[in-house]
Specification:
alpha/beta, 17 helices, eight-stranded parallel sheet, TIM Barrel
């Protein structure tokens, strides 16, 4: 087991579905609380927040954690720790969701509140590039059940800031699919695309194949979770022929109760069907699994060989928003990683 873990760690990897706020560990949460609260939460209380049994419980825990992110220094701290952990796993590039929609909602819908926060994130990113050799892109994530105007505010901010900050590459639509699908966001996705932003979307995590079709039909390039696509052969054909990127997060789906086990996850079926599959950790501090462990579970629970793990690593760069020349430079390094 140590041998396969070492091989996975050596493989250059990109992580494409990772929420900044979901990387905050209970220990860091307690540290943030000590900064801000008159009666700080204990480590045991922080750990208890992460003990949920379904998707609704996860959303509530995520909100409680995010409330402790107040100042730019808080964001810089959690981003730097996330980046250290990524580098320790052999991740050399990450495309990270920032819950900008949540920030706006909790700061009286004021778009000006975000720039100082983003300065803290950029300080961490530049340090990681300099000290860890890790590249990071940011994806501004709206919350689908916060209404279309709120999402538009997030996407407009991404478009406005992108000229000054090339690290901002795309937009996303997270939140509770059960409360709002993708169709209402068609026009603002088109506007974001016209502004040069790349389009990601969460789809089919807690909903059926129809939600994935909706996400496809508004122009999404990459889809997170896509758990229910396995139930629709026509959808699988469309995903394959259109070369839509699947940002899969098996342990996340198990922990939120939408998939019974890692072994039951459709990862293997999608991979064998020729879909463009990537493997990611989503919210690693909440789900107790990082990207190295996801690759390891793919090996132990679904029989992925070392060569297939190489293919997953190559897929992570092929599906990234990196320039093509940079993607290809990583393909050769993956091929040269000794088993």
């Amino acid at each position: 087991m140590d041998d396969i873990q070492a091989f996975i760690r050596r493989l250059p990897k990109a992580e494409l579905h990772l929420h900044l706020e979901g990387t905050i560990t209970p220990a860091t949460l307690a540290e943030l609380s000590a900064r801000h609260d008159a009666t700080p939460i204990t480590l045991a209380e922080a750990e208890a927040l992460y003990q949920f049994t379904d998707f609704t419980g996860f959303i509530e825990a995520f909100k409680a954690v995010t409330r402790q992110l107040i100042h730019a220094d808080d964001y810089e701290l959690v981003a730097w720790r996330m980046m250290q952990h990524l580098a320790g796993q052999g991740v050399v590039h990450a495309e990270v969701f920032i819950s900008v929609g949540v920030i706006y909602m909790w700061r009286n819908h004021d778009p000006a509140c975000f720039e100082p926060i983003f300065d803290g994130l950029e300080r961490a990113r530049l340090r990681a590039e300099r000290e860890l050799g890790l590249s990071v892109y940011w994806i501004f994530d709206a919350v689908r059940h916060f209404t279309v105007p709120e999402a538009e505010r997030v996407f407009q901010k991404a478009a406005q800031m992108r000229a000054e900050f090339p690290s901002i590459v795309g937009i996303g639509l997270g939140g509770d699919e059960r409360r709002c699908g993708s169709e209402p966001f068609r026009e603002i996705y088109a506007a974001a695309r016209d502004a040069g932003l790349r389009l990601t979307n969460h789809a089919g995590e807690t909903t059926g194949p129809e939600a994935i079709w909706e996400a496809l039909n508004i122009g999404s390039e990459r889809l997170g979770h896509v758990l229910s696509a396995v139930d629709d052969p026509n959808l699988l054909h469309a995903l394959r022929t259109r070369r839509i990127v699947l940002e899969l997060n098996p342990t996340s789906n198990v922990r939120t109760g939408v998939c019974p086990s890692f072994a039951a996850h459709p990862l293997r079926r999608y991979f064998d069907a020729g879909l463009l599959v990537t493997l990611n950790s989503d919210d690693p501090a909440f789900f107790g699994s990082d990207v190295v462990n996801e690759y390891l579970l793919a090996h132990t629970q679904q029989g992925f060989t070392r060569e297939e793990l190489r293919q997953l690593a190559a897929n992570s760069f092929r599906a990234s928003f990196l320039p093509h020349a940079t993607q290809h430079s990583w393909f050769s390094k993956i091929a040269g990683t000794h088993s």
